[in-house]
Amino acid sequence: MDQLVVSDLVVEFARAGHRVPVVRGVSFTLERGRRVAVVGESGSGKSVTALAVTRLLPPTASIRSGSISLDGSDLLGLPERSMEDIRGGRVAMVFQDALTALDPLFTIEQQIQAVLDRHAPRASRQARHDECLELMRAVGISDPERRLRAYPHELSGGMRQRALIATALAGDPEVLIADEPTTALDVTVQAQIVDLLRRLSDERGMAVILITHDLGVVADFADRVVVMYAGRIVEDAPADELFESPAHPYSAALLDSLPSLDGPRMRRLPSIGGAPPDPAALPAGCSFAPRCARATGECDSEPVLVTIGARRVACHHAGTA
């Protein structure tokens, strides 16, 4: 059974008196205990989609249409008080910058206990402390007793990210959304954090949405990969199929830009020419066409997202990437 279902989601931002769509008709499902990666360049709409799921959009943004349901319950129709029970409880979020997401005035233990008190109250102070220790151990933090007493600035970047994940786990979520959780970390720590998320997903039967601009971090993590461009899904495929044979030229270009251990030791990595379009001034037809080497006159009309086997792709030349 699908646990999280996002259907035809449209999110708009207010800009200079106009409503600008930044997420355009996004639909995807997340099955219980599975992992999906949502990838794309900055401005593709992936983080806004994640914020819409948790109803944490900024004041300038609004959901114009579409639906989001969790186990059949309409999240967009819930009153805010009910949504507060779900947010941080059944659905938790890990943000990009742990130093910003964690409160500098409170210790790590105080911040974990705040989530426990809200979503999983314990009978005694000792029980809450023991739970904090267990969560710190679960995310691989050594000497958890000492680290619980630390303030966020006293921890390294990787350790802060682990502490933030521990805080998210305190509500025992069914779905964890990790928005660019490795961006500010070095390559070695990035791999450790992604491995940690995969292990926690397996151990807890927890579904995970990983938001990232880097396809390289999801190869061994995701069951499915959703590729977004200019607010739309352009490809949604099983991870192994997408890495083996991307169907959309944008997916192929993202993969080509990854460094590889195969081939010549020294080579210039290809890049995607140009830049993503301004959501307020989208080109007619396919939004990627101005940057696409395979664009033809057919691309003057916007492609629809069609199902081809186990994947969905929005491209008039699907399968030729």
Automatic annotation (TrEMBL):
One of its GO terms (biological process) is peptide transport. The keyword Membrane applies. One of its GO terms (molecular function) is ATP binding. Residues 4-255 form the ABC transporter domain. This is Unannotated protein. It is found in: Cell membrane. One of its GO terms (cellular component) is plasma membrane. Keywords: ATP-binding, Cell membrane, Membrane, Nucleotide-binding, Transport. It comes from freshwater metagenome. InterPro entries: AAA+_ATPase, ABC_Ni/Peptide_Import, ABC_transporter-like_ATP-bd, ABC_transporter-like_CS, Oligopep_ABC_C, P-loop_NTPase. The keyword Zinc-finger does not apply. The lineage of its organism: unclassified sequences, metagenomes, ecological metagenomes. It holds the Pfam family ABC_tran. It is a peripheral membrane protein.
